[in-house]
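User: Thanks for the earlier help. One more: Undecaprenyl-diphosphatase. Can you show the sequence and predicted structure together?

Assistant: Of course, both are below.
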Amino acid sequence: MEQLVLWLKYLFLGVVQGATEPIPVSSSGHLIIAQKLLGLEQNGLSFEILTNTASLIAICVIFRHEIVKLVSGAGRFLLTRKAEFKPDFLFCLYIVIGTVPAAVVAALFKDRIEEIFSSVHTVSVGLLLTGIALWLIRNLRGRKQDGDLSVKDALLVGLAQAVALIPGISRSGATVITSIAVGMKQETALKFSFMLYIPISIGGIVLGASDIAGDPNRSQLAIPYLIAFLTTLVVTYFSMRWFMGIMARGNLKYFSYYCFVAGILFLIFL
């Protein structure tokens, strides 16, 4: 019976991670809250890395055609210098530029950030700040498309992604909000945000491989981890599809309402 309860808890964590990773409400913050409510304590980064890997796979499946087009176009531009492939090359370049701030901050300070800020209070404040930002950009409709971006745009969105290393600050929220704020169209903002997610997640997986290899709970939690992984994979896929529809309709204000309510409730009751 205890084993079944444990499996159900990890199933729930997988649902939380999968449902909140694509949308602007902070998956890391919600996992902290969920683990507290369930009485689970994760030592090390292995669980976070596994669930992030599942989310990454789901998002790569959804954007597979865009990824192939960008990589292929960038490669062709480098080989042929044909102008028709330059937009793909520049978009890839901006993804690299936008990845640098978060990569540097994560490499130098990620453990320290999580040690200082991984509290319910911090998550609550982060959700409230995310809600305010979402409310401020709710009516913005940019004009910049894929070929209109600049180094400045990439750096600003990259800095926002670095700030989102603080639990409670949504990564997708910070990058989508900043992308819209610098004038990107909804579709471009969504695409750029999740293209940025791919390299930073791959980097986290590579750097955290030793945590998984050295996890003393690997054998004991193999099945719960697998349940959480598979659940995260499936739920992320459908959550991402749903969020893409929300972005197309420009209804981000509803996420601001959620962040306000959740942030206040967490502050009061947890």
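User: Great, one quick takeaway?

Assistant: The chain has a mean pLDDT of 91.
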